[in-house]
């Protein structure tokens, strides 16, 4: 059953088809991805990051992103999201018909150079170039920025919080629709998450964006709760906890979508997602990636007796 006929109170943005699949060596067949995305949509997810537009030689797992977007556009009410690192990627996203693009900008210079071979300042210029392109060719296309390594970096170590806020303000002033914070390396703790998102919301208001948090050290749900208490209402998560960043050593484990939905529904916070159908969406994922480990406490333990969303 669905959680409620009322409007959801939080938006869960599923990032498994991008962040999850880029982190595994196996390339999931396109038809299997389509079955998985259809199952996620049937569970009630209304925003899915379907891939990224980077050279296929770098991420062959995501070479069919355009094809997957075309498929997903046929699913009613689904916002299709793609990650783009530059203007060329944005051009491909426009051609594919994506509803929204996400541009990653690292606060850590070491991670930025490893990930996109540019400094954070150069990526800010890339954002301005992308926004100029969209004004000309696709003014309705949404643009979000995710500030990578906002809570720490495996290459650099600690990341200055003032630098995070300065970069967020610069991205908003450039014209991004919203700016979120990403725990790319899984180093965040709840006090830090609450503090940074409180500052972000104070500076950007409604343009303060999503929480993209990892469960690398077991604090994923605690960090999501801290972000929620700070006013965040959009959360990235990955079915079965797939994902991490290939350019941040040891950065494994996105927050598990099923566990996050269960936490919110158990709290009485509407997600608009049917938990039973969400758990069922693990089956096409398992079929498409039979050798990969799947994670999640809810899938292992099941729903509590008498639980109702």
Q: What characterizes the major β-sheet?
A: 8 strands, parallel
Structural class: alpha/beta
What percentage of residues falls in helices of 4 or more residues? Answer: 40-55%
Strand order, main sheet: write it out. 1-8-7-6-5-4-3-2
Number of E-type strands: 8
Distance between the termini: 8 Å
Number of helices: 13
Strand content: 5-15%
Broad shape: globular
Oligomeric organization of the protein chains = single chain
Order of helices and strands: EHHEHEHEHHEHEHEHEHHHH
List the main descriptive attributes of the protein structure presented here.
309 residues; eight-stranded parallel β-sheet; alpha/beta; single chain; 14% strand; globular
